[in-house]
Amino acid sequence: MLWGFVLNLTVGDGLALLRSNTLYQTVGVTSTELGLQLQAERARSSVAVTTRDLTEDLGKQRALTDKSVTGFRRATAEAGDAIGGELRGPLDTLNRELDRLAAIRADIDTGLSSRLTGLNEYNRVLDALFRLYDHLVSVPDLAIFQQASSLQTMGNAREVIAREQALISGALIDHQLTAPEAAAFTEYAATRKFMHARGQAALDAELRRPYEQVFASSIFRDFTLMEARIVTTGAPPLDAPTWNATIGQVMTQLDRLGVSSSEEVARRAADAATGTLIRIGVAGGLGLVAVLASIVISVRFGRRLSAELAGLRSSALELSEKRLPHIVERLRRGEEVDVQKEAKPLKVSGSAEITDVARAFGSVQSTAVQAAVGQAALRRGVGQVFLNLARRKQGLLHRQLALLDGMQRRTHDPDRLEELFRLDHLTTRMRRHAESLIILSGAAPGRAWRKPVPVLDIVRAAVAEVEDYTRVAVETMPGSAIDGDVAADLTHLVAELVENATIYSPPNAMVQVRGDLVSNGYAIEVEDRGLGLSEAEYAGFNGLLADPPEFDLADSDRLGLFVVARLAERHGIRVLLRRSPFGGTTAIVLVPRTLVNSQPALPAADQDEPAAPAGRTPSTRTLPSRTRKKALAVVSGGTHAGLPTRIRQASLAPQLQAKPPPEPERKPERSPDEVRDLFSAFQRGTQRAQEEANEEGEA
């Protein structure tokens, strides 16, 4: 790339020199001829304005000027692409000024222009021409540019002498100079001296010597003396023939010298362009060889480096996509990880830089594994703290429940018995929260049964562990049972969903719980009448339930959801949340077929409870006997001492309800002693059922 850049610059210089030569041979030569004809027409026009006589000589000069204009414009067309953008502007300006020649001549012919005004109009055209000359001098060679610029200055000085000659030519007719004309001549003389001094000083010896000879000649000295006399007196010279002859010879010598000097500069430019192109060929050839050699070396080095980088990339991808995720997954499962064994260095060979990068990756790997192990150890420590606290709390709660059992057995007062029931309900909820901590720590709560437990008992027990259980309606469910080792966790799972439904639904709305035996297992639905969630929130929660992540201590607001996800993952249960047709949320729990056992049909809470089937064992704390009535689905009806009263067939359609039998005769109200004996008998029956359930649970 560098070789191409340098070659482009060098070729550009050579082409610029060739382009300058082309411009000189076309635009330069014809514009010089155009300048001479304009100067001659200006001098004759000055005489015509003074004499008011349009001579044949003036007409011939105008024809020569028009011919020069045509030749100049033809040459600009031939120059073509050699005319760059920097030259296009001055060229357009000159063409516009040349178009004004007809108007300038008309003003002179009709006498509308004075002598000085007419001269200034021609001066304006010639100024545009000399600005074009300035832009023609644009060669990249600095020495040639300086000489060409100096010659341009000398040419400008020659134009000033021509302006002096044109002004005096008219003044010689009437032998006077007006004050503005005398001032203009004084300005011309000062400008001419400055330009000659400036241009001569910048020329080299070869180009300056001819000008020094002209300036030292007697003719030029005579001219300067007459010029100074006109400036001093403010009047034209008395000897008109001498003035015309002297200034004519000076301009002829300067014209001849200008042509020869311009040709010399053009020759130098052409030689410089040729030499530059020769150097370009030599340098370009050698540079091309060097470039080809560097390409070969770069390709070989690039292939080697590419192979080394490919090996490094493969090792880094294996580290980031396989080894580290595998280590993190093992730590998540609770396995022990040896940092020294797992953080093996990357096997990469190659240059020193590649091996340094590989060592840096190895250091990053070791640090990442150590951090992951430390985080896993911290999480296990936190989980162990949760587990220890939860176990202690669970033990205390079991002791509290045992005390409540004893107090209930010894209590015969209905009001106190109701308070004990409420305390028992709060203790049951506290036990569920303690079990949640055990589940989140990765351990099992410890409750299990030897025999299957009916689904209805599991659902009722789950409802009994919810604070707002009176708003939960349990519908009729097919007679099925769940394996005993899953029953406690399923109870906990359903309780979390039911509690969530009661919390996020209006306080006066019922929560419906129903179940049905399906082809893939047993489905339990918990439906609320709340506001529901957005589709994105449902998708996020269902993703968490399907693939539970590691529990985040900072996300305690979703603790119940994490518990449900952990329990579902443990037993292969699927939990899905979706929008309810009523606007709330429906939670669907699908228990796999392998965990379901067929059982006789079980009634809902608003129906009479049938006798326990043969072989059925009441569940301990899954459905506590003292809260069994409270777990039944609540329908409209009064309560006695805070206990819900069941109404037969309340959930059936009117067409299915049996006609009530004739109202029996009202029996006399029981005495206080009879009531006490009734509650004592109820308490003793509850105690016996509790003891039997405890024995089977321990078995």
Task: State which percent range the strand residues make up.
Answer: 5-15%
What is the topology, as strand order, of the major beta sheet?
Answer: 2-4-5-7-6
Q: Count of helices? A: 19
Number of separate strands? 10
Radius of gyration, in Å, reads 58 Å
Q: Could you list some keywords that capture this structure?
A:
699 residues; alpha+beta; Heat Shock Protein 90; 5-stranded mixed beta sheet; 3-stranded antiparallel beta sheet; 6% strand
Describe this structure in words.
- It is a single chain.
- The protein is an alpha+beta fold and 699 residues long.
- Among the domains are: 2-286, no CATH class; 447-608 and 618-652, Heat Shock Protein 90 (2-Layer Sandwich), CATH 3.30.565.
- It is 68% helix and 6% strand.
- The protein is built from 19 helices and 10 strands.
- A 5-stranded mixed sheet has the order 2-4-5-7-6.
- A hairpin with a 5-residue loop joins strand 6 (574-579) and strand 7 (585-592).
- Helix 1 runs antiparallel to helix 5 (115-136), helix 12 (352-410) packs antiparallel against helix 19 (672-698) and helix 14 crosses helix 15 (484-503).
- The longest helix has 93 residues, at 240-332.
- It starts with a helix and ends with a helix.
- The model is unreliable at 600-667 (pLDDT under 50).
